[in-house]
Design a protein that fits this description.
The complex is a heterotetramer, with two copies of chain A (322 residues) and two copies of chain C (376 residues). Chain A contains twelve helices and 14 strands. Chain A is α/β, with parallel strands linked by helices. Chain A has two domains: 2-184, 3-Layer(aba) Sandwich (Rossmann fold), CATH 3.40.50; 197-321, 3-Layer(aba) Sandwich (Rossmann fold), CATH 3.40.50.920. The termini of chain A are far apart. Classes of the chains: A alpha/beta (322), C alpha/beta (376). Bound molecules: thiamine diphosphate (2 copies) and magnesium ion (2 copies).
Amino acid sequence: MANLTLVQAINLALIQEMEADDRVMLLGEDVGPNGGVFRVTDGLHARFGGDRVVDTPLAESGIIGTAIGLAMNGLRPVPEIQFEGFLGPAYDQITTHAARMRTRTRGAFTVPMVVRVPIGGGIHAPELHSDSPEAIYAHHPGLKVVMPASPYDAKGLLISAIRDPDPVMYFEPKRIYRAFREEVPEDEYTIPIGEARVVSEGEELTIVTWGAPVVQCMKAIENSEKSIELIDLRTIYPVDIDAIEESVKKTGRCVIVHEAPKTCGFGAEIATSIMERCFLHLEAPVQRVTGFDTVMPYYKLELEYLPETERISRAIEEVAAY
Amino acid sequence: MANLTLVQAINLALIQEMEADDRVMLLGEDVGPNGGVFRVTDGLHARFGGDRVVDTPLAESGIIGTAIGLAMNGLRPVPEIQFEGFLGPAYDQITTHAARMRTRTRGAFTVPMVVRVPIGGGIHAPELHSDSPEAIYAHHPGLKVVMPASPYDAKGLLISAIRDPDPVMYFEPKRIYRAFREEVPEDEYTIPIGEARVVSEGEELTIVTWGAPVVQCMKAIENSEKSIELIDLRTIYPVDIDAIEESVKKTGRCVIVHEAPKTCGFGAEIATSIMERCFLHLEAPVQRVTGFDTVMPYYKLELEYLPETERISRAIEEVAAY
Amino acid sequence: MPVKTVFETKIDHVSILDENGNFDAKLGKGVIPDQDAVALFEHMLTCRHLDEVAFKLQRSGRMGTYPENRGQEATSLGAAYALDKKDWLVPCYRENAGLFWRGLPIEMVLLHWMGDERGNQIDNELCITPLAIPIGTQMLHATGLAWAAKYRQEKQIACTFFGDGATSEGDFHEAANFAANLDLPVIFFCQNNGWAISVPSKIQCSAPTVAQRGLAYGMDCVQVDGNDIFAVVKVTRDAAKLAREKKRPTFIEAVTYRLGDHTTADDARRYRDEKEVESWKKKDPILRLEKYLREKKLWTDKKHEAALAKARETVTAAVKRAEEIADPKIADFFNSMYAELPADLKRQRDTMCTHSLGLDPSQLEGTERQAVNSQH
Amino acid sequence: MPVKTVFETKIDHVSILDENGNFDAKLGKGVIPDQDAVALFEHMLTCRHLDEVAFKLQRSGRMGTYPENRGQEATSLGAAYALDKKDWLVPCYRENAGLFWRGLPIEMVLLHWMGDERGNQIDNELCITPLAIPIGTQMLHATGLAWAAKYRQEKQIACTFFGDGATSEGDFHEAANFAANLDLPVIFFCQNNGWAISVPSKIQCSAPTVAQRGLAYGMDCVQVDGNDIFAVVKVTRDAAKLAREKKRPTFIEAVTYRLGDHTTADDARRYRDEKEVESWKKKDPILRLEKYLREKKLWTDKKHEAALAKARETVTAAVKRAEEIADPKIADFFNSMYAELPADLKRQRDTMCTHSLGLDPSQLEGTERQAVNSQH
Ligand SMILES: Cc1ncc(C[n+]2csc(CCOP(=O)(O)OP(=O)(O)O)c2C)c(N)n1
Ligand SMILES: Cc1ncc(C[n+]2csc(CCOP(=O)(O)OP(=O)(O)O)c2C)c(N)n1
Ligand SMILES: [Mg+2]
Ligand SMILES: [Mg+2]
């Protein structure tokens, strides 16, 4: 057991999977000698060499399109996109090819690749370095979408993702890259894709969230007198709707928290699913505390945009009082 | 008044706006002498010349990125993307630049452009010619998203879109390009962006839909004994939630129909908004009849994928009986 | 020196069997043995016949949109002939001749255009990727496929085919740039057929040659007469050698012409001059090879008759196989989504409903039940 | 002729004032009048000083990530000097010198890096687009800006700046291809500074020159010593003439070097050799111009002192203006979204809530109320 940050946990998972399977290779911008702009791949170039940890040209569609070819020809590429704001140029390759390859060839070709992307706000980064694109990729069938909220989960989910025979979008909430440490086993272990985690149990209200806002939700729960259950989705698609259903049937009230804009955010999907499954158990409408339907502002105002604790607390009170 | 198809109504709107405003220009693949692969721009190259109706290189990001520059420098470009399946390469320019330009420059620069894209299934087209991307663009603040379901609306909405000072995604449901004709006034008129249309009034249940499925919904209503209100959104963003609220408060039951996959489709956003606003009026959970969470199959099975009348009818019965 | 030259280059055009039937004995020596030339010719006849049949299938509603290959048979065929069986062919959609030569069953391509994914379910041993619909995107896959082979220190290379229009896409640029800078064994084979639907190739590339696209990457580039199968074989062979031995990519521009419409959904008379088409008909790769074979006494009227009969037989059989395949099952488009189907997708498949009231297991009628929509 | 040459070309490198201070009198004649040379030099000193100050602002938490321009001042400055006031400058983020020369207030750039959109609220009369964060995307805007000017038959052209890394992006390719094939008056000005963060330029372009990127489009291309402001001015002027008169684009590769880290978030010692940096320090565009001016007796120690004092004053005043600007209002990021704010966005702004229970109008406390989150 070691006490690791989320960045270190990912680094460890990469090392162990690369040791275990020589089909695993990394590619991306600055992932080589520099170790990535967040140092997630620190030391890997020295350890595994330039054939397995490859600095590519500055071209995101190129990185993903090439990774698709690598995967189709037997490798297990783990491409990195430097920030979610630069995932856009790769959107087409991800959605028209990676996501469709298995079904359009009825299984003759598959794309086992893991696209690692730091996402989300809160670190005073420049423009286009703070968005949360999970709903976009969840809307495209054929992908899995994962977002760890703790070092322990980060390692276990990444190992699952690398071993998964289908393409996985692995979104890393950069706000908590180094925000806290956690005991992480040295051995390899997996956390199943598609299973949510109950962070804390409660009886009166359910909060559903994922990624960095888990921290703000925990604070809001601490500040509240209510008995609140907190669910960290961990996987966005396929979502663990059974876990949510179970909790909301118990509590009858639910608040969903995410950083992405409200309209068509993943919160809408969950809220609708809750209505579909828990209609007669709901004592208040499910509420969303999310980013606003504006472009994420530059950093002077980013904390006003993000769903910080106070906004969550207010929603808790309002839903509880409904 | 002329009896026009949707294609003809768009063609007419383009002609009239180009006559009225010489800042309006068209660009895209095959929009010139060929008049577009669906003949939407038929005759325009001959009428307005090669400077105003421009065949570009085959590059969607290029088309949109260049159109952004044209718009920033005072023109009113109306780029065409040949099929929604080829909108992907332009996703980055649309979402990182067009959508953000006004707010990131606090109004110093704006991008008044209309991106025309034929969308949706049902015409036995090849792969990647049948998807419905409206939820993706509705999730990106800064864009307006429009989808006409009739020739009359197509003309009025397109004229509004061209005159709009902000970027508009104008999605054309190709399944109804020539499916029926409608009286369309010869004079110019506008239909406000953001206003839904009540297609038929009813008391017992509300159906919310947009684009081609309006036709299937009308059939399902005909086949039903219930008194059903049908709302055609016409605009996806900003959505006319007031119209939906009013209707559902009256009927207490709602079915949403769209072609895109269920998960994170725009139906989820509407269903959630209905729960937020009509919670105490709802007599049954809002139901979604949508494309499945699979890749749109090749055409042999496309009608099994699309929300055809029978699936809608079944949902109506089930929601009514809840 | 205030102004000095830092780069100098030129681009060659290679031709062996020209449109008048002249054969350059020196350059052409040993490029294609007689016996193979006959086989290639017969193959082209079959492909040409398939185009005719496919066109009719579409017109009579038995197939969806189909892109004729007519006039371009020598390009992909010459390349496929020049490559090893284990080299990847990464096509667009106008490479029937090369794909069939490699061994792709003709009915696979028919099934694809008949709206059936089983047309893409290609035996991995064939080293062929499925037809690519989004223009320009498949070159990146070729780059990755070749990279994986290099990574494993295998001899395999990749050859990707695309049109003049495709060279306008950013993905083409990124693929070529990756291949050149990371030293990957890829051949970029551009079929410049003069048009991208209705847009003439000057709008895609106004430079004197399309071949010079490759100069941007410091790549070897060459222009070849794409209707001359000898020249195509020669330049592809050279490129393959460079790729295999030096892990260096090559850009090949094969100058050819699309004699038919873009697809059955197109009407080329709307935008191009019949005279242009007529002038290119004289350069038809099939006519040219036939003339060569007849002059060498390798071909006779009788052989021609027999070859046409064989072509008809082959194509008829392929159409039959394509049309007689069992109807696809609805469950297929669910089951093929992931290695393991997520629970909600299983429910959608089993109920054929997306609305949750249909999710009640009591509504299940088995996974292969009739589709809801096809009942009416 | 079986093999014939169909294209031949070469690429020139242009230098006027070399790193040893040699000035080519013939080529350099009249390129920059003495008086302007002095003004340009003073301007460079100011920009260099800004870098120092900005670095410290970042380190002391008064500014976010900042990209130093150090070593590259001659590139954008030479270009901006060579262009007309009404020509568009379409920058990336390392063009301070050129933008300030055109008239962009220094505090705008500071505000941008201080996380404030008002740094992008650029007076349209300046014909400058805001800094572009996503690499390679802005060249397309330049193409469109230039096209609009041509459409209106105006003389305006556009010059877009980008790095060596940016030439790997598909958008660069598409922009260059549009400009070349549609005859648009754009200058593609590449600042090859050797690195894209930690990735050396050989990974972006392994061809002998980056300039030859332009050959793919049949564009004029030239390589220039980017630390030689005379040469930069000359090649930009030639390109501008071609653009203005013939509506033809040019690709310029300016060879330069990033003397600092990529940004304040970077530590270049992790990936590059100090010796390389040292060797480039000798080629510093400022040293070089200073030497030239001193040799021509246009510059003295006293003038230097005075210029530095002036630079300090200018930068201090700009920092003050940037820091003293009123706090941005939360309402701004709502109000600037659309020409007319949609109803739901108004509600979000007025309630600072996205959950509907907060939508009750009774919760309104006015549009400029304190943010919820900043209360704690
Ligand atoms: C990304 C993308 N954009 C547009 C299209 C529509 N489209 C299909 S074929 C074609 C022209 C292709 O021209 P070219 O690359 O020269 O190939 P050719 O058909 O001439 O063989 C176009 C525009 C597409 N399939 N994909
Ligand atoms: C599309 C995109 N991908 C990645 C990044 C992250 N990034 C910022 S600067 C940079 C390197 C740019 O190199 P170059 O174009 O040579 O410009 P330079 O910084 O050297 O001036 C990278 C990779 C980005 N901003 N945009
Ligand atoms: Mg072509
Ligand atoms: Mg650089």
